[in-house]
Amino acid sequence: MTQALLFKDIDEPNLADIAVYERRGGYEQLRKVLSMSQDAVLSELDASGLRGRGGAGFPAGRKASFLPKGDMDKYLVCNADESEPGTFKDRELMQKCPHALIEGIVIAARAGGINRAFIYIRGEYEEQAQILDRAIAQAYDAGYLGERILGSDVSVSLVLHRGAGAYICGEETGLLDSLEGKRGNPRLKPPFPAIEGLYGGPTLINNVETLMTMPQILRMGGNKYAELGVSGSSGTKIVSVSGHVQRPGNYEIELGIPSREIIYGLAGGPPPGRSVKLWFPGGSSAPVLTAEDLDVPYDFDSLAKAGSMLGSGAIIVVDDSTPVLDVALKTARFYRHESCGKCTPCREGTNWTVKMLERIEAGEATPMDLDIMASVQEQIIGNCLCVLGDAMAMPIGSMIAKFRGEFEKHMQRAQLTGASA
Amino acid sequence: MSGPGPGFEYIQELQGRAIPRASDGSRTPGWDQPADLTKDPAEIPDPAVIHVAPALRDEIEAAMARYPDRRSAALPALKAAQRFHGWCSPQAILEAACVMRVTPGYLTAVATFYDMFELEPKGRHSVYVCTNISCSLRGADALYEEIAAAAGEDGEINVRHFECLGACDIAPMVSVDNVYYGPLGKGDAKRLVEDLRAGREPLPELRLALRRTAASELPAEHEQ
Amino acid sequence: MPRPQPSEITFSIDGREVKAPEDMMLADAAKLGDIEIPVFCYEPKLGPPVGACRMCLVEIEGMPKLQTACSTAVKDGMVVHTRSERARVAQEAVVEFLLINHPLDCPVCDKGGECPLQDITFGWGGGKSRFIEPKRHFRKPLELSPLIAIDRERCILCYRCVRYSQEIPEDYQLVLLERGAESFVGTFDGHPYVAPFSGNIVELCPVGALTSRPYRFRARPWEIEDAGSICTLCPAQCNTRLTVRDERVLRVLDRNHPEVDDGWLCDKGRFAYQAMHVDERITSPMIRDGGVLREVGWDRALAEAVGALRRGGSATAALAGGGATNEEGLLLGRLLREVLGSSHLDSRDGEAVSLPHWRALANPKLAARVSDLEFAHAVLVLDCEPLDDMPILDLRLRKGARRNGVKLLIATERASALDSRADAAIRFAPGRGAELAWALAAALRGEPVDAAAQAAGIATDDLHALADALRDAGREIVILYGERVLDGDPGALLALADALGLAEQDGGGLLGVPAVANGRGLREAGVTPNAGPGLGLPALAGGHGAREIARRLASGELTALYLLQVDPVLHYSDAELWERALARATTVVAHASFLTPGLREHATVIFPAETSPEKEGTITHPDGRVQRLRVAAAHAGDVRAEWRVLAEIIERLGGAPTPPTARALSEALFEDVPFYGGLTLDGLAGRGLRWPELQVSNTLSDAYEEAEPKLRKPLRAAKGKLLVGTYRSIWAAPEVAASPALAFLTPRQRVELAAADAEALELRHDEAVVISDGEREVRARVVLRAAAPAGTAFLERELEEDGANVLRGPHVTIRTVASVEAEAAALIAAEEARAAAETETLAQAEAEQVT
């Protein structure tokens, strides 16, 4: 059921050390791309069918090919601001195998014709940042980074940049503003970062897992990699499973296996005597699914067809012991806290939604408020500057749609207890 | 009509006490105060007037040198200033702004955007308790209360709710001075505070860095 | 940067075919089809759109999601629906979102009636409210600065004001704090938002969150009238829109003129209208009677003035400044030259500049426009501080550098506010702008530079770096110069213009910043010692410039002085000489609004001066744009039109009659000044016309011939002394001191020092000191500046107290007040001791005598 590419040596002691990583075949793909043409690297990535592992699922090869050719300053930014609730795969990958990330960065830089790279790691990951600091220093010493890598004419510099606690910096343009030393407000698109990104230059932004997959693709060959998984969702994926499961953790799976196998088979399912009430298939921004959807294949297209999304590959399982209102309130409060405040529907919509949910909780709401809340979610979706507003509106909207009866029951109960109190 | 109406009472109430701005309050002082008109405008601090400790200056300048645009050093500069001064005090921000050649207003705008900057004096130890969804499904809200109760009024321990810290596999978990520990069970809250007070590493056996991947712990039938 | 030349396209909006320039933003292009798309955050003046408020969502065929019209460039064939069902639902949603936390306190809100949020709610809102939760509350209103109140409840977080602070004056003082629904507009640690252009945020705010404190609760939009005017407090001559209620000016707003002010105002221009209505303003004529000024009727004052001027005759001199109009200048010239037989009149400080120089400088081929600052390849800021001397240009220069990559090069004596924006900046020795220009011209021509560089007090390496930057920048270069650079040798600037080939460029040239608002117009109207109207040969030769007038008044050769809106003791250098000159003069007739020091002590007759909203006539912008002033408010008190006062004096002295109306007088001006030929008041309309662009025959030829440089001796360092440089702050104006709202900005003397100099002199920041040139002294506080050039102390000119104008330089000594006082105390003690000893000796002697 598991398929180990990225996780192959993951628990090898001292894998974070360059010597161990090299002994395990590390940096061989970096050597290989130094002698390959930019187009050859791009076509391997393209052939692999790899889709971004950060959340949006955009084909990674195509993204790299959008960068204009020419010798202007171009940038590669590794998005290591893993903040999507329920997601912790990049943390484990960076902590245990930082050199694979560096190797992936050089490969991606080669694909985009880029020579300045940054890793934007969330500020809370200080332990991982220190591991990366050491790894980057080792890579520089070994000549895998810097001017004229291993004597070739490829140069890539790499700077590790620590965030300071803001979910919105995981949004790629918010990340760019933050990296430029500003408040992490998302930017208007277009222009897209591939044309005008960091410091106004063409910028390629990739997630940690995406970049760490690149050495694997080079090793196997793009076509071979594409044989893994299913059509439209090739390869393997690290899935973070958390919440009401018996074995929470990261599992590397081949895309397309039934979701039930991940939740029950790997993660052990809910505690004995409990059943799955709802689950987020791709982080807390994904519309929720229910027990009925457990047999949906875990891949990009199948989850989209089921009305949700694969997102960052984080499954959060909620069992029947937890009221849906608690989940909704937790989720909405999170997005209100993390809304940057730049655009109106998100700033005011998240705030309003929380206030309505609080009113429901306090027994001060009527079923009409559910209609208003549902309509507010619709007013947010598609009207915001970035996707953060949608990221709240989609799961909240799905909870209202799928658990309306429970919300209404709660209202009645709360009204009664409120009245008796 | 006799006496002032309910609107009047409301205004009275507003004038009489601090106004709760939003349900979770504000970290940034000044939102309900007028500008202090006796102060000069906060322009870029002049290095001829502001003294900055050489070690802090060196650290910020080194950060500025790492980027094509010196402004990119705003976060590292604020972190350094916070470390030197214990929190992002006005003086800390002023000094960072002086070295970076930006206005203190610019850095204040940045500092207040991010959760990890402390805009009020805070204790030496930071304890972030993740209370986002995955952790809360596994008892994080109660854990937060327990830790907060154990720390009590101890000014040295800064216990904060935090959004998802990216460690749902060890839920419920805490980040103590940027080191992750979890899952915390019964009695761990009290022990955590005791360890901190005693100057020991808290809950050493729960340190995240010691864990293997969940995949490696799978029962045999799941292996490839 | 060549200006963009967009082609025209056709697009369809709500069923209408509309033509618009390609790539214009849809929100703007829609207006060309008479369709309004609501916006809050969008304001083209603030730079690229940010798409934050989401108010302007519209449907565009072929695009799956609604698009923000503020950020969508129109393309040929685009089909747009602004009122489709989808668009309407989204627009209503945004209005609803904005209103959920907006207090509906419109009845007590200053913005009520002129509020975009009100209008858009009415036009695009859903007309219902579903939000029953408590709104966000803030204490309100709060002071953001002495000028601006902030009401954070009303704020809709459109970001305009903070974008303004960051993008326009680039002061980064006003920022957004916190994030999300918690965000609020604020400053660092409760500091007030005080900056030269802060008032613009009041006008930018689309709700009543930022209001003008002086205007709060003064009027409702339906009680006021709008009047177009021009600010004459500095040479920028920004176009303004006055809010007038009951004939009083209550507010000043911008009247966007892209060729003049770009839609911004400085706080002096915005708030100094208050000075019109204060008690200190002179509103009736006064004469000195028994040594004391007292108010009298017009007849008495006119008779007094006429009598005195008749006695003065050809020994009369005249100076004009402030906001005096071209017409007033014309009449002043007639009064002096044709009636009194004197050609001693001037409109600028310092020595006279020769007529050939003036004519060469006015050559239309060399003339740059204001907007060239935004599109040239490079701008050299030479010997002026735009922020102080012509503030609005500071914003224009920043805009050019930020948006169009205009290279900004600075050559000044004092650190400039634009240094941080500049590609290169050099400092020369105080007062040596001309030498710098010679040196730069020589460097550009590949000639030896050493002598000029030494005289300018600059290192040759720095000079060559600046010359290289200019040479490499591109063809179109604007030199923005302060008129002080003409002191010493006016040929220097012309040589520099020649070295850069400015006469051959369309997008470049010279733009001079005079010291007073209508400096250029007064000169062109004939208020200059060696030229008549239109820089023609004067009717009378042998006129003296201002400095020489002072000397001759002081020596008694000249006996009478006519001051049109200028007080040389306050405004001109060598205040002490002027003090003596005025003291010696038997007659000092002045038009003034405030009793400045020279007038308070020495004026014999004072006529109340008009302010620009009360005036009729024309003024000339430094780039040659003739602009029209129209009466916008009633004369305060007994104030009369100043041109009528001059006309009356001319008539009583037997001069030729003056045209009977202001309009006829302007026509006479256009006739007298050849290059104003063809102008009419109606043609000037509300936007003015640049005469260098008019196809009129003018006598300003290219016949100027460059002479050998006249270089002054290098300034040497002197032990224990510093060179002294002076500057005039934007706030150094009687109108600022007199306006209650602005009074807090009135400058007090401060001496700027480099840290090394302060250390050598053992002076600390903020210490009280005495600066002396050996004879005269001023008191000041020490201000340390890292950017201050070592070896020079900088002090403010034109202050009513302790102005640096009294100092003669080039060197000064600086001592602490404490040490001066201690020394004085010691002297007194020594003197007392000596006196005591003497008394004792005397007593002894006496005693001895007695015995």
Walk me through this protein's architecture.
The complex is a heterotrimer of chains A (421), B (224) and C (851). By secondary structure, chain A is of the alpha/beta class. Chain A has 3 domains: 18-223, Rossmann fold (3-Layer(aba) Sandwich); 235-319, Ubiquitin-like (UB roll) (Roll); 324-420, NADH-ubiquinone oxidoreductase 51kDa subunit, iron-sulphur binding domain (de novo design (two linked rop proteins)), CATH 1.20.1440.230. Chain A has 17 helices and 11 strands. Chain A has helices at residues 18-23, 28-34, 38-48, 60-65, 89-96, 98-112, 126-141, 172-179, 208-220, 222-226, 259-266, 300-305, 324-338, 344-361, 367-380, 388-402, 404-420; strands spanning 75-80, 116-121, 157-162, 203-207, 229-230, 233-234, 236-243, 249-254, 276-280, 289-290, 314-319. In chain A, helix 3 (38-48) packs across helix 6 (98-112), helix 6 crosses helix 9 and helix 13 runs antiparallel to helix 14 (344-361). Among the domains of chain B are: 54-111, Arc Repressor Mutant, subunit A (Orthogonal Bundle); 125-200, Glutaredoxin (3-Layer(aba) Sandwich). In chain B, a hairpin with a 2-residue loop joins strand 3 (174-176) and strand 4 (179-181). A 4-stranded mixed beta sheet of chain B has the order 2-1-3-4, with helices on one face. The longest helix of chain C is centred in the C-terminal third of the chain and has 34 residues, at 817-850. Chain C has 851 residues and is an alpha/beta fold. Helix content of chain C is 30%, strand content 18%. Among the domains of chain C are: 1-100, Ubiquitin-like (UB roll); 286-349 and 519-691, Rossmann fold; 357-513, Dimethylsulfoxide Reductase, domain 2 (3-Layer(aba) Sandwich), CATH 3.40.228; 722-822, Barwin-like endoglucanases.
Biggest sheet strand order of chain C reads: 15-14-25-24-23-16-17
State the CATH architecture of the domain at 286-349 and 519-691 in chain C: 3-Layer(aba) Sandwich
Determine the fraction of residues in helical runs of chain C and give it as a percent range: 25-40%
Shape of chain B: elongated
- CATH fold-type name of the domain at 286-349 and 519-691 in chain C: Rossmann fold
Cα-to-Cα separation, first versus last residue of chain B: 82 Å
pLDDT averaged over residues of chain C? 95
What's the number of extended β-strand segments of chain C? 34
Strand content of chain C: 15-25%
The biggest sheet of chain C, with number of strands, parallel, antiparallel or mixed sense and barrel status, is: 7 strands, mixed
Quick one: how many beta strands of chain B?
A: 4
Instruction: Report low-confidence residues of chain B grouped into runs of 5 or more.
Output: 1-25
Tell me, briefly, the overall form of chain C.
globular
